C-alpha cells in the first residue's frame, strides 16, 4: 500500500490500488480491500482519459463484488459523480 501511494501517475496508481485490493479480497481481508478501493475512487477522479476511467471504474466495481462488499454511501456518491462526469445524465448514445 505504501508503494502504491508513492506512484504519481493517476492511471498507474489506480491500477495498482485496484490490484492490491483484489489481493486483499482473495486473502479474505474484505474490509481492507474496500478501504483500498475507496482510495482508488479518489484517484480515479484525477484521470483525464474517459475510456481508461470507464474501464477502471468497472474494475473497481468488480473488485467490490469479488470482496463481497458494497461501496459505502460516500463511495456510491463518488461513483455516481465520476460516471456523470464521463457521460452526463440525459445524453443519449446513438
Amino acid at each position: 500500500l505504501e508503494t502504491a501511494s508513492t506512484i504519481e501517475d493517476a492511471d498507474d496508481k489506480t491500477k495498482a490500488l485496484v490490484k492490491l485490493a483484489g489481493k486483499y479480497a482473495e486473502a479474505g481481508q474484505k474490509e481492507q480491500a474496500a478501504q483500498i478501493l475507496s482510495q482508488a475512487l479518489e484517484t480515479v477522479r484525477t484521470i483525464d482519459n474517459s475510456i481508461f476511467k470507464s474501464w477502471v471504474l468497472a474494475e473497481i466495481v468488480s473488485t467490490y463484488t469479488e470482496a463481497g462488499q458494497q461501496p459505502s454511501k460516500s463511495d456510491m456518491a463518488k461513483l455516481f459523480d465520476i460516471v456523470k462526469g464521463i457521460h452526463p445524465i440525459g445524453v443519449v448514445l446513438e
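The chain is about 70% helix and 0% strand. The mean pLDDT is 86.
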